């Protein structure tokens, strides 16, 4: 159907788009080794936030434990999620590998977990990520990611954890 016919059906063509691409992302360390140093987490989170901002996207909150991190972000509509994840994992891995303070870091796991969120869910996801360290006194990373996946309608397979 030509654009002129679509405009005739739906009214005047508007040039303004509104996009909300909120993602809750989880990245684990290779083999889920507990090698992220919590005393350096503020620097790591700031670095990751800079990568996100450089991609015209918005970091909302980043937090984690010794073997994984959670990121809540708004992804710019022109950026593919897979490209953002490639940049985040590759750049931060290179940075930590070259910084002696992160000498225990052994790399990120092959996979990542990303779930879209609605604006209505935003305060709950933000609070959940803020409480990560307390949360993991009660639950393992493996159980946490299984629950998140199932809550988001994903069939779980333990082989996804690498």
Short account of what is shown:
The chain is an alpha+beta fold and 162 residues long. It has helices at 3-10, 41-54, 81-98, 122-130, 132-135, 141-151, and strands spanning 22-28, 58-64, 68-74, 113-117. The longest helix is centred in the middle third of the chain and has 18 residues, at 81-98.
Task: Describe the structure in your own words.
The protein is α+β, with helices and mostly antiparallel strands. It has six helices and four strands. The protein has helices at 3-10, 41-54, 81-98, 122-130, 132-135, 141-151, and strands at 22-28, 58-64, 68-74, 113-117. It has a four-stranded antiparallel beta sheet, with helices on both faces. α2 crosses α3. It is globular. The termini are far apart. The model has no long low-confidence stretch (mean pLDDT 86).
User: Which strands sit side by side, in order, in the main sheet?
Assistant: 2-3-1-4
Structural class: alpha+beta
Query: Roughly how much helix do the residues carry, as a percent range?
Result: 25-40%
The mean pLDDT is 86
The value of Rg in angstroms is 18 Å
Tell me the distance between the termini.
Answer: 47 Å
Could you tell me the number of beta strands?
A: 4
The parts where pLDDT drops under 50 for at least 5 residues are: none
Major sheet details: 4 strands, antiparallel
What is the overall shape?
Answer: globular
What topology does this entry show?
Elements lengths: L2 H8 L11 E7 L12 H14 L3 E7 L3 E7 L6 H18 L14 E5 L4 H9 L1 H4 L5 H11 L11
Antiparallel strand pairs: 1-3, 1-4, 2-3
């Amino acid at each position: 159907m030509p654009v002129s016919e679509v405009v005739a059906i739906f009214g005047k063509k508007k040039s303004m788009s509104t996009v909300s691409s909120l993602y809750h992302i989880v990245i684990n360390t290779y083999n889920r080794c507990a090698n992220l140093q919590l005393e350096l987490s503020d620097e790591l989170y700031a670095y990751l936030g800079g990568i996100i901002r450089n991609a015209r996207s918005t970091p909302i909150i980043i937090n984690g434990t010794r073997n994984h991190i959670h990121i809540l972000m708004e992804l710019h509509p022109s950026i593919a999620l897979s490209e953002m994840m490639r940049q985040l994992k590759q750049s931060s891995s290179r940075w930590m590998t070259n910084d002696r303070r992160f000498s225990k870091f052994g790399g990120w796991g092959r996979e990542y977990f990303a779930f879209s969120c609605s604006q209505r869910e935003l305060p709950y996801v933000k609070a959940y990520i803020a409480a990560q360290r307390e949360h993991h006194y009660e639950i393992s990373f493996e159980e946490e990611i299984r629950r998140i996946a199932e809550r988001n309608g994903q069939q779980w397979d333990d082989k996804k954890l690498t």
